[in-house]
Design a protein that fits this description.
With about 110 residues, this protein is an all-alpha fold. The protein is built from 6 helices and no strands.
């Protein structure tokens, strides 16, 4: 359903059984999936029912672990150098491939 939601296609078409027209079942599935997504925490990706033992969940359903993303680390390190005053307002730090960066630098040095 996640791909159907992302691509905006009926589930029957995704499964290879439909002609692209939304059936009543396709609509019910899409509405149910949208309701499901509303229950998912945007921060951790879990739902309250997964933790609630009275609803069949388990308070030990997940474990918190650490994971280092080198890309996020690079962004955080660069963000430290963005001014905190008006000069830094609206400044975004993003990652681009090194090859693209090299091409942009070459272009900058040859046009100035």
């Amino acid at each position: 359903m996640e791909l159907c939601h992302t691509w905006g296609i009926p589930h029957s078409l995704f499964r290879g059984h439909g002609d692209g027209i939304w059936s009543e079942l396709d609509r019910r599935k899409a509405i149910a999936y949208a309701a499901y997504l509303k229950q998912v925490c945007s921060s951790c990706g879990t739902r309250p029912e997964e933790w609630d033992e009275t609803l069949g969940g388990d308070e030990d359903a997940y474990r918190a672990i650490t994971h280092r993303c080198i890309g996020c680390q690079l962004i955080a390190d660069k963000q430290k150098h963005v001014p905190s005053d008006d000069e830094g307002h609206g400044v975004k730090v993003l990652l681009i491939p090194s090859s693209v960066h090299a091409a942009l630098e070459l272009q900058r040095t040859h046009t100035h």
